[in-house]
Amino acid sequence: MADEQSPLSQADIEERIEQIGRYSKVVKTGLGVIVGAFVLAAVAVLPANLDSVTSAVDAILLPLIFVGMGLLLFGIGMHLHLLHLNLVHQLRKQRDQAPHATERDAESQS
To answer: Which among 66, 64, 81 has a CA at the least distance from the CA of 31?
Structure first.
């Protein structure tokens, strides 16, 4: 799968891809922090600014933007996670089929 110009072998690529679960946990933790900050802002800052609609919107707008960005990043992170899992599946399938292919090639040459 790796071409001749790539310094990484297929084994190196597979090893790095196997560690993708750790990145998925980091993405989920980041989203948790963002949602936690939003809840904290909603509970601590919003009640102090309920005297007018404008101040209430100002108090909650920035945390809402961060939650929206966090959800977007979470979606991107999970999409990449699924792409990597698919790549792992394909590499394993290719590795499992490789011994069978060499046996068939040897039989066809005989």
So the answer is: 66
Is residue 13 packed enough to be buried (19+ CB in 10 Å), middle (13-18) or exposed (0-12)? middle
pLDDT tens column, 38-85: 888 888 888 888 888 888 888 888 888 888 888 888 888 888 888 888
53-109 helix and 20-44 helix, angle to the nearest 10 degrees: 170
d(Cα 16, Cα 110) in Å, to the nearest integer? Answer: 39
d(CA 64, CA 55): 14
60 sits in which H/E element: helix 53-109
Quote the CA–CA distance of 71 and 87 in Å, as a whole number. 24
CA nearest to 80, candidates 28, 35, 36, 24:
24
For the full predicted model, state whether its pTM sits above 0.70: no
